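A further point concerns the way the authors explain their paired sequence and structure data. Since the whole study asks how a given chain folds, the encoding of that fold should be made plain. A single example would do more here than another paragraph of explanation. An entry of this sort, consisting of the sequence and the corresponding backbone structure tokens, reads as follows:

_____
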Amino acid sequence: MKKQILVAGALTISVIAFGQKREIRKAERAFEDKNYTEAIAELKQAEASLANADEEEKAQYYLVKSEVYTASAGDDIAKMKTASEAYQKAVELGARTEEERRMSALQQNLRAALVNSAIKDQNSQNFEMASDKLYNSYMVSKKDTSDLYYAASNAVNAKKFDKALKYYQNLLDMGYDGASKEFVATNKETGEEKTFSSKSERDLMIKAGDFIKPVERMTQSKKGEVLRNMTLIYIDNGEDEKASKLMSNARKENPDDTSLMRAEANMAYKMGDKQLYSELMQNIAESDPDNPEVFYNLAVSNAEIGETEKAIEYYNRAIELKPDYASALINLAVLKLSEEESIVSEMNNLGTSSADNAKYEKLKEKRQQMYADVVPTLEKAKELRPDDPEIIRTLMNIYSQLGKDAKFKELKSRLAELEGN
């Protein structure tokens, strides 16, 4: 009697397995016909008895499931996740040799669908969705670590800091650097450099005669940015000690890495240590003397710790390197005008003696000279930002103080236009 029960049980399992194979084949045929609704329905029927299937059948089921959900997903994150999870399961179970080509094509198609959809999300500022899609893309192909990096970046933009921290930590644990080879050539007609997506594309344009001077170089490491963002997240979480320890260890490993110097400088600034920030930025300036952003940041930090003369010097250097640097021009003008408060205070505290009257006239002259010195800087800023009401208002008031009525009236009229008066 026991034998009969065992045989019956074996027959039941065989029937279930046969039915399951039939449903998977039906799902495959529906997929090939692009009838995804029917394919999903067949897969759901097969799923009901999946526990009784052998590993080969399970691998086939997950392969087909991933193909169907990839093809039908569009921008649907739920379907994309289902496709990604099914693909990972198929890989885990092991594809048959004859299925390896299908698996490779599926991996490419699924990654392309996830990444392209994530780019759409980024462009519409749906950063959390973009992060989820890029993370799933990374899980489909873990050799593509840039997907995890961009998943973390989008998590930061979405203010999902715990998720970003987890992804960044994974990148550090795997020794992520992020530097990659880029293929560059110079446009023969314009003299401008262009970066190509591949060596073959670059070489093709060289052969066509449109480009010259082929160059291969490595992009800058992204490790500094990873560490900077991690330290900023720790600081935002009130975990200053973790932030300092992380940065200290990183700097010991790479003492000459300017990207890490920048990350440490950002950490110092965030923690309120403006003195250390300025010292670190000075080191960066020495190693990167032609970068206007470095000198701009140095100027800002020196202004904040009261080093006005140094700040003016650094703003001038930033503007020298980048003459159309509107923010530097505006900040420089504001910094120079900040002297007005002390001049006016001193003027108001003077008495009525002849000596005080003489001093008053000197201070008045100094104030007028300060206004005159600032005018060219603000005029340049106005050229760059002609619709900025604050620049126009400041210039208007200065021209009023300098007695330049025509300029004052011109700017007053322009300000009224901008403010709709």
Summary: The first strand starts at residue 181 and ends at 187. Strands lie at 181-187, 193-196, 211-218. The two ends are 100 Å apart (CA to CA). Residues 2-126+134-141 form one domain.
